[in-house]
Amino acid sequence: MSNNPLQPNRPDRRGIMFVVSSPSGAGKTTLTRRMLKEVEGVELSVSATTRAIRPDEEEAVHYYFKSHDEFRSLIGGDQFLEWAQVFEHYYGTPRGKVEPLLRQGIDVLFDVDWQGARMLKQCMPGDVVSVFILPPSIAELKKRLEGRAEATPEAVMKRLLGAGPDIKRWGEYDYVIMNDNIETAYEELRSILYTERLARRKASQGARVDVLLADAEKLEKGG
Ligand SMILES: Nc1ncnc2c1ncn2[C@@H]1O[C@H](COP(=O)(O)OP(=O)(O)OP(=O)(O)O)[C@@H](O)[C@H]1O
Ligand SMILES: Nc1nc2c(ncn2[C@@H]2O[C@H](COP(=O)(O)O)[C@@H](O)[C@H]2O)c(=O)[nH]1
């Protein structure tokens, strides 16, 4: 066990629900994939979706790819912590693994839209830290969307038209990052997680503070 925020004290801490949203194409997948690779003690909440798999994606690693019927039956079985329609597809956060991970002291990363972020905050308010990623401009957002392998002009336009309604929700988040430079944005994202880890560590220091106070009192009494 370590006091380093890189290696959180697992048994005596509850994990953080680290919720990251952005308009499509602003860069949250790029940033969160790097965080998952480089930061210890964080796991991705793998969502279910009805959208088609992309060339760089793997079943059960990036998403659980479902048919509409399968997705509906998961909703019926109360298998989602939250679910939403985003563009013309359905996305949902499976309930099963979240609570066990949090109890093991593992931070869980959620890449969800504003509807999902709002629901998660409502369900588990004390556990959620939310971050909104902004693009530096709409022109740059368009460029980033066009640069992706699966981008058709229609898909790019649909996602671009969704940017305004998404950006309007920025005030609901705990933190906002402007993803102009990827290195700076990544450093900021990681710093937020470390800061929140340190803030929560205060709660587990009570027993050690009691010992310090008892010793200090003994000293004051000359014992
Ligand atoms: N700071 C940046 N500068 C230049 N390009 C970037 C930057 N951040 C991300 N990108 C690029 O922009 C594209 C979109 O990024 P990404 O797929 O991470 O967006 P996203 O917010 O996860 O989108 P979606 O919500 O649709 O999944 C990618 O090609 C990525 O490499
Ligand atoms: N409410 C939820 N939103 C989700 C979930 N998983 C992903 N998303 C969001 O959907 C859009 C589009 O994602 P893409 O991978 O198709 O580009 C993006 O904003 C994601 O954050 C979820 O489980 N619930």
TrEMBL record:
InterPro entries reported in the protein's UniProt record: GK/Ca_channel_bsu, Guanylate_kin-like_dom, Guanylate_kinase, Guanylate_kinase_CS, P-loop_NTPase
Listed EC numbers: 2.7.4.8
Residues the record lists as binding ATP: 22-29
Location(s) in or outside the cell: Cytoplasm
Keywords assigned by UniProt, alphabetized: ATP-binding, Cytoplasm, Kinase, Nucleotide-binding, Transferase
Domain Guanylate kinase-like: 15-194
GO molecular function terms listed in the Swiss-Prot or TrEMBL record: GMP kinase activity
Reactions that this protein is recorded to catalyse: GMP + ATP = GDP + ADP
UniProt record similarity statement: Belongs to the guanylate kinase family.
Protein purpose: Essential for recycling GMP and indirectly, cGMP.
Protein's UniProt name: Guanylate kinase
Organism of origin: Hirschia litorea
Species lineage: Bacteria, Pseudomonadati, Pseudomonadota, Alphaproteobacteria, Hyphomonadales
